[in-house]
């Protein structure tokens, strides 16, 4: 599957393999590890019109279905296409498109989840979502911009939006999840 962070330039995506039997809450953990998010915010996976997350017992009704009780294979059943959505951080609204590239039998000695490819570094947490991050980059690039100092403080003077991810680190994070 390919997970792509929407509305962000340069592009941020990961190609990963997971078993169809993975629970959706664990799939969320895989996405967090693959993209190096910090798992500090609410999230939801949406298949068609059905949302899955961790229900809030105080909310009562109308929230997402329990991601701990559904597998990826179950969530994909009956879907026409093999694309679904992953929303991380309801405030910043980091939307991701997830496309199933194919379904193949698991390798008997294979370890899952595993990373096949990685492109781009995700923006910093709490940077205002795609549009806030784009504004920060604009301010960072222009020393005369009225918000240059704020962008410099938030992103740092060594921030490089074109940097590539540390693939070894992602492999290590996914290996930890594979052992659980």
TrEMBL record:
<feature type="domain" description="Plasmid pRiA4b Orf3-like">
    <location>
        <begin position="2"/>
        <end position="163"/>
    </location>
</feature>
<dbReference type="InterPro" id="IPR012912">
    <property type="entry name" value="Plasmid_pRiA4b_Orf3-like"/>
</dbReference>
<protein>
    <recommendedName>
        <fullName>Plasmid pRiA4b Orf3-like domain-containing protein</fullName>
    </recommendedName>
</protein>
<dbReference type="Pfam" id="PF07929">
    <property type="entry name" value="PRiA4_ORF3"/>
</dbReference>
<dbReference type="InterPro" id="IPR024047">
    <property type="entry name" value="MM3350-like_sf"/>
</dbReference>
